[in-house]
Amino acid sequence: MNRVRIPRYDQVYALGDCLRSGLEEIIADSGSEYTVVGIDSMFKLLFAGGPGDTEQFPRTGADVRSRDADRWARLLRPAAKDRGVLLPPNQFESQFVSAAYTEDDIDRTLEAYKHALA
Question: Which of 6, 28, 56, 71 shows a CA-CA span of 20 to 30 A to 44?
């Protein structure tokens, strides 16, 4: 009998935590006005006030759309692609860490974001 192998969710969630915290550090170091949101294996970068700025944190879709949302396609996505990391076409889509990711993949992704946010 073949058994279905279930991915190790704790490992995937830990990689998601690592990616989100790494993004938060990059944002803090760059002084950029972005916010990282997500849980477990899901993450998203939103244009907003800086880390901890709850006054500027987007709460609705209209809040997100009111920011310079086209900056994602104009600046972030091409800069990350230059580093070999393909981001979603727009900032409205969530990103996910899968069981196929390694710590090296997370490091490459963070380096691509660092380059893109510089």
Answer: 6
The CA distance from 76 to 113, in Å, is 8
Mean pLDDT of 70-96: 86
Q: Model confidence over 43-67: pLDDT tens digits?
A: 988 776 544 555 666 666 676 666 6
Q: Which amino acid is at 81?
A: K
**Span 1-10, pLDDT tens digits:** 565 555 678 8
Q: Are 112 and 106 in contact (CB under 8 A)?
A: no
Mean pLDDT score of the chain:
82
Query: In the sheet that 34-39 helps form, which strands lie side by side, from edge to edge?
Result: 34-39, 42-47, 95-96
Helix (H) or strand (E) holding 45: strand 42-47
Within 13 Å, how many C-alpha atoms sit on residue 65's CB side? 3
Give the C-alpha separation, 56 to 83, whole Å: 30
Nearest to 98 by CA among 54, 48, 46, 41: 41
Task: Find the distance separating the first CA and the last CA of the chain, reported in whole Å.
Answer: 53
